[in-house]
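INFO batch 0412 | record 1 of 1 | parsing
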Amino acid sequence: MTGAPLRRLGPPSRSVSPDVASRIAGLDWSAIAADLEAHGCAVAPAILAPGECASLAETYASDALFRSRVVMARHGFGRGEYKYFAAPLPDMIAGLRTAFYPPLADIANRWNAAMGIETRYPGEHGAFLTRCHHAGQTRPTPLLLKYEAGDYNCLHQDIYGEHVFPLQLTVLLSRPGTDFTGGEFVLTEQRPRMQSRPEVVPLRQGDAVIFPVHHRPVKGTRGVYRVNMRHGVSRLRSGRRYTLGIIFHDAR
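INFO prediction complete | emitting tokens
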């Protein structure tokens, strides 16, 4: 499934700082693709600097930036809360989507080919968003999540309509061991006729974890088959934890 080499990123997006764009462009995308294939997730280290993380976390208090707030316990999603950013997205958020999308689209297209799925994704995020908007998926999906002691996020999938981009990422904005304890990112993989396999991903402040939205291809003895993926967050033992979620498809 590694196939052709990944596309090199073009010029930095106008919506993201040159520093952040260069960090994304400088990632070892071959290694990220290999980790996604082997383990179902990959860590992109130090995507955001500590000051950038703190600034993003502070925006949680500004309701004007968001279109909705969700209290997880009201819906059986867990405990904690999150807010979806409103359109137009802040420059940093829009820029992260734009910069991460092209190399992830290469991986997604290879995955779909391996699984026999006909859908292919355009090379630029704007073109994919046009596809979403034509189908009535016009609400932006990037979000900030806030957890406090005792909070957790149940295993779930972020599917918001007919058009689903198969990879997403979460950036840890808080400092583990300093701002909070517990609250590990958890991924589970359900293979046919087998028990689910868990993966706990340790992150540092500013790291992004890249993972599947719904399913991914796995090589078996009889060829490639797809496995179902879910993700969540374990119970926060103390403190407060903020994360940024970047989902590439919009919602109905």
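INFO post-check: Helices lie at 18-25, 29-39, 50-58, 72-75, 91-115, 125-134.
INFO record closed
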